[in-house]
Amino acid sequence: MTATRGLEGIVATTSSISSIIDDTLTYVGYNIDDLANNASFEEVIYLLWHLKLPTAGELEELSNLLAENAALPPEVIEHFKMYNTKEVHPMAALRTAVSMLGLYDDKADVMDPQENYMKAVRLQAKIPTIVTSFARIRNGQEPIAPRKDLNFAANFLYMLNGKTPEPVEIEAFNKALVLHADHELNASTFTARVCVATLSDVYSGVTAAIGALKGPLHGGANEQVMKMLTEIGSVDKAEEYVLDKLEKKEKIMGFGHRVYRQGDPRAKHLKEMSKRLTELTGQGKYYEISEKVDATFTSKKDLPPNVDFYSASVYHSLGIDHDLFTPIFAVSRVSGWLAHILEQYSDNRLIRPRADYIGPGKQEYVPVSERG
Ligand code: CMC
């Protein structure tokens, strides 16, 4: 047996949800560019869960279900108030709160397709409320309930900031949600599938996925990108910063990808948005620094920016706290995790690979009293 490090190139399952073929990303056969330019995030959720775009009636029904299920059990809010929210990373809080949601769902362990679909609705609806409630509570503010007249993207920004967002903000945020919704067998989605393939419950699958997304090689990269842009501070320092990192053989977050070779097709949309939004909000220097980092890095390494690179300056220009960037990734990606969880249940087999053992050979047991 020979191990393939990081399972690179290993095809671990079949799936009808999303595909990456020749550097083109599609959701159920729809090119990501088309969806990013035209679709609402709610349409994309429906697409991923039902493998078809919704009719107007189906879309309204899903939107209503999401709005009706957005409220959290009061115990989750109380729990946020119990610990020092200033010290806790919002991804850790999200992971814990999603696990808690399982405690308050009396159908959590019922393995029935309709019940599991409703758990998907509840999770998709409640995760934005968790992220925004946590963000407000740590600032000494009360959580805000979603409004029925706002769409998913607008509601998130409204629940976070307490004011109705501008159309340009809603458009940008919706696009970011669409772009992050699913991505074939990425690390967190694979984690979710491994978890539920034991026939564990939906809440366990999503909790496990949040844990995987949190790491800086995956979803956590967007927060690290913003940390880097802030550290650089001005465009004239960008080149030296990148060259110094490369010299020290350190990674620059937001570049490279396991699957894409020519570049991540999502990055160009975020780059465009970053340019527009940073200019509009007087944060233009972050776009300029980003561009300089991009030009310097890619002139040295053939590793184009990925989805996380320009999303950092987009979220920053929307006035979002930097440690909320990865939770926002989760707000979107949970739609994909849930689609994959439902697909896994529909044709399940335990996921249990092998390891190439490289430890010591045969050893004789020596009682503890006789060991030197
Ligand atoms: N900066 C500098 N060097 C890099 C980078 C980078 N961002 N990415 C890869 N490399 C180099 C790496 O050092 C290695 O060089 P060498 O062969 O000389 O040792 C080579 O490229 C291969 O890298 P790897 O880490 O073995 O590649 P991988 O396929 O295992 O990892 C990756 C893919 C995305 C984890 C990696 O490119 C990386 O760490 N990027 C930075 C973190 C990041 O932006 N993550 C977000 C990924 S996209 C969104 C998501 O899925 O969450």
- Rg: 22 Å
* Approximate shape: globular
Specify the helix fraction band. 55-70%
- List unreliable stretches of 5+ residues: none
Family: Belongs to the citrate synthase family.
Pfam family, one: Citrate_synt
Organism: Rossellomorea marisflavi
GO biological process, one term: carbohydrate metabolic process
How would you sum up this structure in a few lines?
The chain is 56% helix and 3% strand.
Keywords:
about 375 residues; mainly alpha; Citrate Synthase, domain 1; Cytochrome p450-Terp, domain 2; 2 domains; three-stranded antiparallel β-sheet; 3 strands; about 5% strand; globular; binds carboxymethyl coenzyme *A; Citrate_synth-like_sm_a-sub; citrate synthase activity; tricarboxylic acid cycle; Citrate synthase
Description:
It is a single chain. It is built from 16 helices and three strands. The chain has 372 residues and is mainly α. It folds into two domains: 30-167 and 176-215 and 323-346, Citrate Synthase, domain 1; 221-317, Cytochrome P450-Terp, domain 2 (Cytochrome p450-Terp, domain 2), CATH 1.10.230. A three-stranded antiparallel sheet has the order 1-2-3. The model has no long low-confidence stretch (mean pLDDT 97). Bound molecules: carboxymethyl coenzyme *A. Residues 6, 186, 217-219, 221, 251-258, 301, 303, 306-308 line the site of carboxymethyl coenzyme *A.
Blueprint (SSEs and pairs):
Layout: E1 18-21, E2 24-27, E3 30-31, H1 32-38, H2 41-50, H3 56-68, H4 74-82, H5 90-103, H6 113-137, H7 152-161, H8 167-180, H9 187-196, H10 202-213, H11 221-232, H12 238-247, H13 267-280, H14 284-300, H15 307-317, H16 325-346
Antiparallel strand pairs: 1-2, 2-3
Helix pairs in contact: 1-8, 2-16, 3-6, 4-6, 5-6, 5-10, 6-7, 6-16, 7-8, 8-13, 8-15, 8-16, 9-10, 9-16, 10-16, 11-15, 12-14, 13-14, 13-15
This protein binds carboxymethyl coenzyme *A (CMC).
